[in-house]
Amino acid sequence: MGWLRKLRTDRNERVGPVAETMEPRLLYSADLAGALLLASTAQDAAEQRTLTHSGEYGPSNATARASATATQPAATEATVAETYAALPLTFEVNEGQAGSGVDFLAHGSGYGIALSGGNATLSLATAHGQQDVTLALLGAKQGVQGQGLGLLEGRSNYILGDDRSKWHTNIANYGSVVYRDVYDGIDVRYYGTQRQLEYDFI
Question: Any residues with CB less than 8 A from the CB of 147 and at least 6 apart, and which?
Fold first, then answer.
C-alpha cells in the first residue's frame, strides 16, 4: 500500500470546475413596465366595510381608493410618457410601407427616421409642419446595405384602406441597424431611445 500512497502524492491535484457569478439580465417589456408602474400606485389592502349608525354598510375602502386615484390622472400619464420616452427605438425593414430607397424606418416621440445607404433622415413634427433633417456621411461608399441587429418579437402592420394588395403585415423589427464598411474598415450603427437617435462609428 505504500506505493499507492506515494503514487497519490506524486500526482497533480485534480482541479475542479469554478463557478463564475453572472450578471442577471432582465428583458425589458413595455407592457410589463407599464403594468408595474400602474401597480406601484395601487394599494393592495383588503377591502373593508363598516356599518353606519343606521345599520347599513358604508362605502368600501376600495371605493375611496378609486376616487382618490381618479383625482390624480396627470401623474400616471406623466409616468407612462416618461416610460415610453425611455424605450429603445425599433427599426422596421422597409417592405413597401415607405418610399423606394429607404432601408429601415423608425418612429420616435415626435419624429420619424428613414435610413438609406448609411445616411439618416429625421422627419420632425414642428409647429410649422414637418421638417426634414438629413445626416449624410460625406465621402462614404455608395450602395452599402443596412443589416438589422437584435431581431425583436414585435411585428409592424400597415393596414390602410380596403385594398388588401396595399397592406403590409408581419414586418420584422430590430433593435439597431448597422451599415458595414461605410468607410474603409469603419461601420456605422444606428440605435437610440424614443427621444433621440444615436449612432456609433465602429
Answer: 177, 178, 179, 180
User: Is 15's pLDDT higher than 70?
Assistant: no
pTM flag (> 0.70): no
**Pairing mode of beta strands 146-158, 168-183:** antiparallel
* Measured distance CA(54)–CA(47) in Å, rounded: 21
Query: Which residue would you say has higher pLDDT here, 188 or 2?
Result: 188
Cβ 190 vs Cβ 202: under 8 Å: no
DSSP secondary structure letter of residue 130: E
Q: Quick one: cell of 54? A: 343606521
Q: Under DSSP, is residue 98 helix (H, G, I), strand (E, B) or coil?
A: coil
d(CA 177, CA 190): 5
| Residue 118 and residue 140 in contact, taking contact as beta carbons nearer than 8 Å | yes
Over residues 89-125, the pLDDT tens digits come to 899 999 888 888 999 999 887 888 999 999 999 998 8
Which three cell numbers mark 45?
389592502
Q: Which amino acid is at 38?
A: L
Give the dihedral of Cα atoms 192, 127, 96, 174; nearest 10 deg.
Answer: 10
- Rounded to a whole number of angstroms, the distance between the first and last alpha carbons of the chain is 64
The pLDDT, as a whole number, for residue 82 is: 77
